[in-house]
Batch of 3 targets.
Target 1
Amino acid sequence: MTGRAAAKLRIVSLQRLTGVFLGSHAVAEGAVTRAQLQSGLYRRLFQNVYADPGLPLDHQLLARGAMLVMPDDAVLGGRSAAAWYDAPFATPADPVLVLVPPTSAWRGPRGIRVHRTEVASGEVRLIENAREAVRVTTPLRTAWEIGTLERVGNAVALLDAMVGAQHLTYESLERLAREGRGRWGSRRFSKVVPLVDGRSQSRPESLVRVACVRAGLPAPVPQFVVQSAGRWLGQVDLAWPEHRLIVEYEGPHHFEEHKIVQDDGRYARLIAAGWRVIRLSTADLWDLDGVVARIRQALALPLLAG
């Protein structure tokens, strides 16, 4: 058994099958049988990689599983690394992004996306806890893969969150865009950076804002504080103050009974003060063109008295 395999086996022993582990090593140690693995007693993440079913099934769990099968010279990057930088927007349905050297022959199991690229040693960060150590790219290198590999809206949402959490700054992103000119993906990255706004507090806010700007509409103000006659009326997701137009995204928690009452009262006060309110739900995000059309129409209407 190689030193790397032995180290992984020791991790299994310490976790006692309560974390993420390699099935073959757990069977070899006698901690579990093949029949138990095949029975569904543990959650299968990838081929030969399993997890305690009591752990939340999120993208970070899958990334932790990927660590057990990645080569020693590989590193988690892009949206998968962003989960450790307060941008956990990748879902369990999204492939884990693993960066490997250009010469690497490793392809990875199904569920892992391999991106071949050079990564300097200074662009790797080891995040350790009592159970494991996870290799991820640094915030700036993470930003590069996000900006070059993700769709524009999703890239902006991830970078918005990282800037908002102070893992990145606008200045560092602009500098990275300048220094990266001529590299593969640099044009794409340069289109993403000007759209980043760390004031956004959710992925839906970022997606709607980016869709509006790319459609030629004026950029809204994220997390705008609405006041009327010196009275605070609330902080809203997106606003066009000069048009007194507000867009609010309502996630599932907004439909809880007490929250509905609170929201209705808040919206009534905003409307009474002369503001228009467009309320969006998760279903609206599947038709951003339709959302933009609604906003465009509202921006063209005359202001309400307030």
Target 2
Amino acid sequence: MPKSKSIWVPLASVVAITITIAPAAAQQKPNIVVMLADNLGYGELGVYGGGILRGAPTPRIDALASEGMRLLNFNVEAQCTPSRSALLTGRFAIRSGTYEVPIGGTPDGLTQWEITTAELLSGRGYATGMWGKWHLGSAEDRMPTNQGFDEWYGIPRTYDEAMWPSLDETKSMWPSVGNRQGWNAKVVHPEHIYEARKGDQPRQVAVLDVDHRRTMDAEITSRAVEFIKRNASSGKPFYAYVPFAHVHMPTLPNLEFAGRTGNGDWADCLAEMDYRTGQILDAIKQAGIENDTLVIFASDNGPEATNPWEGDNGPWRGTYFTAMEGSLRAPFIIRWPGKVPAGRISNEIVHIVDIFTTLARVGGAEVPTDRPIDGVDQLDFFLGKQEASNREGFPAYVADRLSAVKWRNWKVHLIWQETMYATPQKLALPRIINLLTDRKEERDVGAQNSWVADPAVRIIGELEASFKRYPPIKLGTPDPYTPPEPGLMRTRP
């Protein structure tokens, strides 16, 4: 399959993809496990140059990489909500009104019109489960069990809210704030941990506080393992989406791991995450389904930027909430024994939206044809049938700001921002970086390479043309959402 020169997939191309996907449905459906670390930077894992350099070896994840394929140029969106939206819908978050972390006051998350991976695979007979942070809607009708998942345990928003009910000097290291001491739930309600089954009302089971933050990954893993064993025993194909809590701030280990490395909380959390990953891999092996299970381990974002929980961006520059490589590049490992070549490493560009389209093909599902799908099918690339990715580049948004464009080994910056706390600066002229010779993005080589602007502008033009035909959903859009023509209101699978 030739390289795609377009980032947005036109309607005709989507139809073509559905034609190629359909025959896979006749084959045995593999199980799919997607483990998603939270804000795990490029330089954290041993296999990416971290591990013991970050205070804790990561033997289980490193071994997983040796058993499958490791990407050096896997790209995500700049914030948690946009990345998770892109992963589950195959659409850049700017299209779905999910382009920034919600603050409150308006409907947040995905409209029910969006179609998730869980819905596609559920429609093909898969059991679907999720455990962990959703961050794509805190109203009950937008929670995971109303977006294709059969079961869910986790939080609707994010883990830094664990500090809210812990703002009590008698219980926590964090000081009280304002002119009154302690937490006042009447001012802002704390976030709850939920348990839900499809068709039932989500149930609040606990308040997310610092103590529960410490135990989240143990609980997430335990429930995911039980789901894997249960469905392996029944012979039903399954899709397990496992977004871990680590290493999102506050980066606090389970008490069983506290002090284990001797290198502080952050290293203890890295050790725990490696252990939890191993528990899930062990469950797959013990169930006898290793060869029938596609496993992905990835991160949703670049590293944390807030003291004392800063992460590591490896050889790159910047943190999440920017368009720097330290924000965009994240770890990615895929294993499928006997199908994905073991030990393969690639610097070809893959974007998180591609996972949606690829998993659709794996599960024998058809991608939607009534909306633009930005993800491209990367299965043949992952299987080693071709050396090149089916993607050459993509637009990089930070919130609703088109900040950069990546194309091959080039980066064209339109807005310059090095860290999430830096002020974005609109550039008078684009800044062109050769990522092969300048991993820290320090030298503008636009004077010698102004030609790079041409493919970058083409990517922008195609995206803007698609916006005219399919207007993006506005942030805070309530349900029911009906797209303007030519989009059509879909029937949920």
Target 3
Amino acid sequence: MAETTTAPAPAPIPAHVPGERVIDFDVFSPPGSQADYFGAWLALLDGPDLVWTTANGGHWIAAGGSTVRGIWEDAARFSNEALAVTPGLGEVMEFIPLQQDAPEHKPFRSAVMKGFAHQHIVATEPLVRGETVRLIEAMRPHGHCDFMAEFAEILPVHTFLSVIGVPPEDRVRLRPLGRQLTRPDGTMTVVELRDAADAYLEPYIRERLASPGPDLFSRILSVPIEGRAWTFEEAQRMCRNLLFGGLDTVVAMLGNVMMHLARHPAQQERLRQDPGLIPDAADELMRRYPTVAVTRNCVETCEIDGVTVERGDLVYLPSVLHNLDPRSFDAPETVDFARKLTQVRHSTMGAGPHRCVGAALARMEVIVVIEEWLARMPAFTLAEDARPTFRAGNVGALDQLALAWQA
């Protein structure tokens, strides 16, 4: 998904796009997003539910909650094959199962979900808790930290690499690849990014195919695909998919959760006094701070929000514009630990047949981090004069988050 450092000229506006739906909006750099990522996106709620931008080759943006959610769930008319608004990305990455449509998608998705079965998530919790405690105990005497660099960039990647059975210390080598996919800076082409991931994964994939172990990749590759074994190419595409999926989203999520608690000492204290609230609080915080956006390509010309979406058009779906639309949730910007999310499902983890396969693992990580941080750290705040900064992209994330406490 690499972008050039010099912005390309705006793409021509297709004839079927009404002029009043065209806006100046680059999803990789929304105006003001560095200081206020969520506010930058929420500005789109003031207009139509579907708008067109000429940035990044030209594409639609779903800008209303029901439209975001509706297209996300509409696998019949909107495919995930294109993967992103960057031209050519889908053809290069060829992720399994993320870029597959029915019926091809089902057996591969089923195999992956078996790898993420509940008993495996439960078995991973001691690993997550142990690493969380280690990182907290190392930071606590200092009285301050950059939460992103010293915790969020470490724990989820350490966890994922441990789960797939590769050396956790390879985080230093692999973490930049995750950033390049979701928040490209132009230093790598898409082909270079794919090839770097494949070069790293290949020996592990061949080993797992020949002699499966207890790791996540082995569990998935041990599940036959409609009665036959996985081919190497299929295994490579699946492992590539999961590697990129495991390198960035939880990093971003943890940063936003901790930023909120630092800014809201009363809610922080409430969770300290009643840890039983933490699972519901984790769900609500994940709803309140969604940063993932996906792209769907239209495979059947249709009308949405009063305009024609033609076959081949790309539609960008920001989860923030579903979760924080007042038409989707009451007082959506308010964090309410008693909110009953079973009534309206949020879109932080996606929706429909491509909902995030690692959602349960991510949720468990967030819960464990909140539990251990509040049990072991004194009250904490944003450091004096701290200004959290964001970088937008297909996964928006904090660049830095300075926290402070009494050591």
